[in-house]
Amino acid sequence: MSRIAYVNGQYVRHGDAAVHVEDRGYQFADGVYEVCEVWQGKIVDMPRHLDRLSRSLGELQIDWPMSRNAVEFVLRQVVRRNLVKNGLVYIQVTRGVAKRDHFFPSDDVAPSIVVTAKSTSPAAAEAQAEKGISVVSYPENRWPRVDIKTVALLPNVLAKQHAKENGGKEAWYIDTEGNVTEGGSTNAWIVTKDGALVTRPAENGILRGITRAVVLDLVKREDLTFEERPFSLQEAFEAKEAFVTAASTLVMPVTRVDGRIVGNGHPGSVALRLRELFHTATDLQTA
Ligand code: PLP
Fold it and tell me: Does 211 sit in the ligand 1 pocket, CB within 6 Å?
């Protein structure tokens, strides 16, 4: 079976899927995106992801490429046509195709939309979670509007590549005060020696992660102690546990930060429990 992508109104073979060379996403990174998990044939938290997409589009004054209902339909279609039971569905919207010019194009230029989906291996993800991951710190290198989920990911690419070259799976951004902001493509958490969960407030310096929000709901439901406040790299070194959250990783334990062992060097019980409970707190919609 060949993979199918949706590009500006058409379902095409993934290998043939393309946008114009003057798409503003390609030339200016003038676009936004979302990634939803697909779990057991269900799209996870689609309304929350589309709410965030709507906000990102609004902040950049890009119109919806079509109605929200139509976008939902296409997301479902792409998941189904690719026979994805477990995996990810990706949507990208850019300001459209126009002669290269920094100014916004005229109103008659329609936004571009691309949707793709891929299968992932739940077994591989669980094996990774049983081992945990290493993270590597990296100085914050992004613009201040990280609350907008733009496709301008070059800083994140550089941070994550640095992490990879230093034995890590994720980079943790450090701000000028020495605090961890978030990961290159995840939100960052620790569990203190006293058992309190700590994650940075979403007001500034981070993307308001959907997985983070679901985990916060879970934390409240389970009556766990939590503090939404910045935490330093030093605190992370001394933490009982650490983990990251994202639609692509769910709750993923962190066992090393900059080569230093976190807690006992094994995935923490709080992280593993939250991972296990994760889907009980999500909105699951049949693809
Ligand atoms: N932070 C950054 C920079 C991200 O790129 C992502 C996901 O791509 C996240 C956090 C996690 O967000 P979500 O839980 O919505 O996937």
Answer: yes
Does the beta carbon of 32 sit less than 6 angstroms from any atom of ligand 1? no
131 is written with which tokens?
């081992």
For residue 201, report the distance from its CA to the centre of ligand 1, in Å: 14
CATH architecture of 4-120: 2-Layer Sandwich (3.30)
Question: Catalytic residue at 149?
Answer: yes
Is the entire prediction scored with pTM above 0.85?
yes
**Is-contact 268 243, C-beta < 8 A?**
yes
Residue nearest to atom 3 of ligand 1 (CA): 185
Task: For domain 125-282, give its CATH number from 2.60.40.420, 3.20.10.10, 3.30.43.10, 3.90.1170.20.
Answer: 3.20.10.10
CB 159 within 8 A of CB 141: yes
92 neighbors 32 (Cβ within 8 angstroms) = yes
Domain boundaries, the chain: 4-120, 125-282
Report CA(123)–ligand 1 centroid distance (Å).
22
Are β-strands 250-257 and 133-139 bridged in parallel, bridged antiparallel, or unpaired?
A: parallel
Residue 249 Cβ < 6 Å to ligand 1: no
3-state secondary structure of 58: helix
**Per-residue pLDDT tens digits of the chain, which is 287 residues long:** 789 999 999 999 999 999 999 999 999 999 999 999 999 999 999 999 999 999 999 999 999 999 999 999 999 999 999 999 999 999 999 999 999 999 999 999 999 999 999 999 999 999 999 999 999 999 999 999 999 999 999 999 999 999 999 999 999 999 999 999 999 999 999 999 999 999 999 998 999 999 999 999 999 999 999 999 999 999 999 999 999 999 999 999 999 999 999 999 999 999 999 999 999 999 999 99
Q: Pick the catalytic residue: 149, 160, 193, 240?
A: 149
